[in-house]
Design a protein that fits this description.
With 161 residues, the protein is α+β, with helices and mostly antiparallel strands. It has a single domain, classed as Nuclear Transport Factor 2, Chain: A (Roll), CATH 3.10.450.50. A hairpin with a 2-residue loop joins strand 4 and strand 5.
Length: 161
């Protein structure tokens, strides 16, 4: 009987450690997206996403927003973000909502700050992520931005382009 309890303890400890490890990996992916985008590390950023990604980024798509399917996330960001003097994407309150061996859902809060020519644009809101495990790593397959407050249209900062 003692052997059975010991095996159950070891098994449950291993499962808890695996779940903790998955949560840590997912958090690292989410934080890594913001860091790589701000640093212009496009190759590193690409590694955080699946080959096909469903995105909803209303503030970056214009006032009406949009939900482009399988967008070239990295290409879009690589075209847009260098047009600013600086960008900062603060990610907080990451919550892993569900995780299995191959899929996960997570949410976070964000505070985006873009600066250009002495002017600044800010937005806060929530991000929702769907991730999948492929080739021994977690990648984002869908990301939905739900803005809550911003300082006006982002396009105002790009008026003189």
């Amino acid at each position: 009987m003692r052997y059975i309890w010991m095996m159950l303890f070891l098994l449950s400890s291993g499962l808890a450690a695996a779940a903790q490890s998955a949560e840590e990996e997912i958090q690292a992916v989410i934080l890594g997206i913001a860091r790589a985008a701000d640093d212009g590390e496009w190759d590193l950023l690409q590694q955080k996403f699946a080959d096909h990604v469903l995105m909803n980024q209303t503030s970056l798509m214009g006032e009406d927003g949009g939900r482009p399917a399988e967008t070239d996330v990295i290409g879009d960001w690589a075209d847009l973000l260098p047009r600013f003097d600086s960008t900062e994407h603060r990610i907080t309150d990451i919550e892993i909502v569900a995780v299995s061996r191959i899929t996960a859902r997570a949410t976070s809060r964000y505070h985006a700050i873009y600066k250009r020519n002495g002017r600044m644009w800010e937005e806060t809101g929530r991000l929702s992520y769907l991730l999948k495990r492929e080739r021994n790593r977690w990648v984002v397959t869908a990301m939905d931005a739900a803005p809550e407050q911003n300082s006006g249209p982002l396009t105002d900062l790009l008026e003189d382009d």
